[in-house]
Amino acid sequence: MDLNKEKAVKRINKAGKIGHIVMIVAEVITVVTFAALIFFSTMVAVVPKDFFSFKTSVMVTGMLDFSKVDEEASDEQIRESIDEIKKSGFAIFTSDPETGSDYRVEGTKVYFDTVTETSTFSFEKLSMAFVFLAVICFFSFFTLLCAGFLCKAFAKCNSPFDEEVIKKMRLFAISLIPWSVFSMLGNYMIAYMSGSPKVSLSINIAVVFTIVVIFALTYIFKYGAVLQQESDETL
Questions:
Q1: With pLDDT > 90 as the criterion, what percentage of the chain qualifies?
Q2: Are the C-beta atoms of 179 and 204 separated by less than 8 Å?
Q3: CB-count exposure of residue 209 (10 Å: 0-12, 13-18, 19+)
Q4: Counting Cβ atoms within 10 Å, is residue 106 exposed (0-12), middle (13-18) or buried (19+)?
Q5: Percent helix, percent strand, percent coil in the chain, to nearest 5
Q6: How confident is the model at residue 230 (pLDDT cuts 50, 70, 90)?
């Protein structure tokens, strides 16, 4: 039984050493990325805000087929249908420069052209994106650092229930808390970059669930440490 326990501890130590090396490599990559983002954000920030910008939009052709319903495609009915679509506000109607009409009729079908919401790109938005990504890199480094501490604790432990392992596991769980905030701000940043006025803030359930599970594991490991201590004292 002692031999199996010894083998298990050695495997934990080996996994911890490998994980520690991987975390160091990831930390180096994160630091380099952070430095590059700070450099680019600084370079972009010195450029005048209105030096360069462009807008994009998507043209969409819609169609109403009155042959599918028991209604006559009269001018009044067409106008009422077009007005209802306009009220939805999903797009901006474009008019034909020759006729001035915002729709055209071909038999029982009515076609209309719309332009979806436009998105604007500028150096100001690009600079904000670089800063946002730099902040993510900063907290990524902190999370990787805590994960490295945990792997190092596993590499040196005599038991997975060592107090040092439990402390580092709790610290790693704390390092994940900012990601629940970034998951909400990510949607805002995407909306800001695209120029969309619609912003939705949502909590990433997966991140919250991971944090809760890791905190729960710390208490389970702590309980295991108590049982191990009682077993050692009995022996």
A1: 19
A2: yes
A3: exposed
A4: exposed
A5: 65, 10, 20
A6: confident
Instruction: Read off the amino acid at residue 102.
Output: D
Name the average pLDDT for the chain: 77
The residue type found at 152 is K
Radius of gyration of the chain (CA): 30
Nearest-5° angle of CA 7, CA 11, CA 15? 170
More confident residue, 128 or 198: 128
CA distances in angstroms from 82 to 46, 69, 73, 89, 206, listed in the order given: 47, 16, 12, 11, 43
pTM of structure: 0.63
How does 160-171 read in b/e, with b if 16+ C-beta sit within 10 Å? bbbeebbebbbb
Q: How far apart are CA 220 and CA 56, in angstroms?
A: 53
* 3-state secondary structure (DSSP) of residue 159: coil
Sequence-distant (6+) residues with CB within 8 A of 15 are 151, 154
Reading the block at residue 107, the tokens are: 């038999």
Domain ranges of the chain: 2-49+122-234, 58-116
Cβ burial of 205 (10 Å; 0-12, 13-18, 19+) is exposed
Across the chain, the runs of DSSP E, i.e. the strands, are 53-56, 59-65, 92-93, 104-106, 109-115, 119-122
Q: Which two tokens stand for residue 73?
A: 């495609």
